[in-house]
Specification:
554 residues; Rossmann fold; six-stranded mixed sheet; 20 helices; 23% strand
């Protein structure tokens, strides 16, 4: 019996880069097949060409200078590279849909969420306005967004990062396409929502026989959902095969190095901080968000983002904060750095309460605590060069320009970027590279306290391991105190000394990482642990202590 024809076949695809690029081709001679009812996971480091290859299926090339020069992309036998713009518009969203990595840049900031999803249905004539509205509400509920009727009328900036990602997933799945291309679709999601989204994609895939190209750096996700795996490096395909075979018996050295970089869920040796001074103390922290009423009309509404939050961090210690999207993790971070004003409570740095301080009094305090933001694209000024962004802080605080720029070059090399990156702009870098720039900017003022809000969520596993080792090294050398916010419990197990589990604005469990992971006391903590992707998968190399940052005595 003949094997069924592939739903999608990429045959010898080569995509050229501009002459000034660091290599000739973004994608070089790549050949892949995707069958119906199959999930193909494409993995590789940032800049490996996996996103360029996947976007080429929809004819989405980053510029006129990055175009295919050879090969074919066959969808049900039709060469998409030869298709007209009108034909591609008919296919996009309807037959082939895509979930993008950065929802804030992919969603229109001036349109409500409901209107953006409805636009997909309207363009492809999917029923009357009332029918479409019902379908939009159905999809918002299917991706586990709270109060779909309110989300329908919200703008992207009014949602959390995880909620924006779920809205974009709802948009991509609204017409139940034949092929779904998912470019890091669960990167910004907490583990429970991630598990729900993966289950949703699998369910639709099985019911509709949908083929899925899933671009990811999370090998836990790969272990959970992949039927086949393709590994890319420098634009080339270095290995592909059945998921079990690649995960357990990788042939390529590059694949083995990626697997070795996956952080273990088993915490490392515990560091002892007894006797170390408390450098950051938080007590009774409350914060509410209010909306509606006033000039804009509508009913007034108040949401408790933080409810009596409190914990201590000792000098040199790393405290992790984990929990679902909307649990209050980022609000805690922004209150600590006084980017948000708490309603009540204390935030003491070396015994000084910074909550009542005015902006002038806060200035020297802000030099001591810096923040690495979750969204590297949104937090970097697109009109300033990387060098200007990193050197600006020290110069504002009185450092000579020559000293600040020397520090800038040193930090760029420290985070794995060439010093020539100082002359370029943020949009010229990949998501992972932008996050490294954000880290360099935060370290420029030599802070005592670093508040890191999902600092490695956008990074592939190998770069993630490098950045985590870098953070561990800096933490030990400088006695840096870190508040580390993450949804990745694997990362938390390797980075953090203690962990606070947040739910609906409250800390429901706090303790040493090893104790919480080995014997979680709260039902919510047990739910989080059970939802970790690939929880029962462990590659031999991934379990080696040398793959993660090594704890050291303070």
């Amino acid at each position: 019996m003949n094997a069924p024809a592939a739903l999608l076949r990429i045959d010898g695809l080569t995509i050229d880069l501009p002459a000034q690029a660091d290599r000739a081709h973004a994608v070089e001679k790549v050949s892949l097949e995707l069958s119906r009812n199959e999930i193909l996971c494409v993995v590789g480091e940032s800049g490996s060409g996996k996103s360029v290859m996947s976007r080429a299926v929809l004819g989405l090339f980053p510029s006129s200078h990055v175009q295919p020069s050879a090969g074919r992309i066959l969808f049900n036998g039709e060469d998409l590279l030869a298709a007209s713009p009108q034909r591609m518009r008919a296919l996009r969203g309807n037959r082939i849909a895509m979930i993008f990595q950065e929802p804030m840049t992919a969603l229109n900031p001036v349109l409500r969420i409901g209107a953006q999803i409805d636009e997909v249905l309207e363009i492809h004539q999917a029923g009357t306005r009332e029918v479409r509205r019902g379908r939009v509400l159905e999809m918002l509920a299917a991706v586990n967004l709270p109060e779909p009727a309110k989300i329908l009328n919200a703008y992207p900036h009014q949602l959390s990062g995880g909620q924006r990602q779920r809205a974009m997933i709802a948009m991509a799945l609204a017409l139940e396409p034949d092929i779904l291309i998912a470019d890091e679709p669960t990167t910004a999601l907490d583990v429970t929502t991630q598990a729900q989204i993966l289950a949703l994609i699998r369910d639709i895939q099985r019911r509709k026989g949908m083929g899925v190209i899933f671009v990811t750096h999370d090998f836990g996700v790969v272990a959970d959902i992949a039927d086949r795996i393709a590994v890319m490096q420098h634009g080339r395909l270095v290995e592909q095969g059945a998921a079990d075979e690649v995960l357990s018996r990788p042939r390529a050295d590059y694949t083995r190095s990626l697997l070795a970089a996956v952080p273990s869920l088993v915490p490392g040796p515990r560091r002892n901080f007894e006797g170390a001074p408390v450098v950051l103390s938080i007590k009774g922290l409350h914060k509410s968000y209010r909306s509606g009423g006033g000039l804009f009309g509508g009913p007034a509404r108040s949401v408790n983002a933080l409810v009596s939050v409190g914990f201590d961090v000792r000098r040199g210690e790393t405290v992790g904060i984990v929990g679902e999207s909307g649990s209050g993790k980022s609000t805690v971070a922004r209150c600590i750095t006084r980017l948000l004003q708490p309603d009540s409570g204390e935030i003491r740095i070396d015994g000084i309460d910074v909550v009542p301080l005015g902006q002038r009094a806060l200035r020297p305090v802000r030099k001591r605590m810096q923040m690495v933001f979750q969204d590297p694209f949104g937090s970097l000024n697109p009109r300033r060069t990387v060098g200007q962004l990193i050197s600006e802080g020290p110069m504002v605080h009185g450092e000579a320009a020559s000293v600040a720029w020397a520090r800038t070059f040193e930090l760029l090399e420290l985070v794995g970027l060439d010093r020539r990156a100082a002359e370029r702009y943020p949009h010229e870098f990949s998501g992972g590279q932008r996050q490294r720039i954000g880290l360099a900017r935060a370290l420029a003022l030599r802070p005592d306290i670093l508040v890191a809000d999902e600092p490695v969520s956008a990074l592939d596993v190998s770069v993630q391991a490098q950045v985590l080792r870098l953070l561990a090294d800096i933490r030990v050398r400088l006695g840096l105190t870190v508040v580390f916010i993450t949804h990745d419990l694997r990362v938390a197990s390797q980075v953090c000394d203690s962990v606070a589990v947040m739910r609906r604005g409250e800390i429901v469990e706090f303790g040493a990482v090893a104790d919480v992971y080995a014997n979680p006391q709260h039902p919510y903590t047990r739910e989080l642990m059970a939802a970790v992707p690939g929880r029962h998968w462990q590659h031999g190399a991934a379990a080696e202590p040398s793959t993660g940052p090594q704890p050291a005595s303070p």
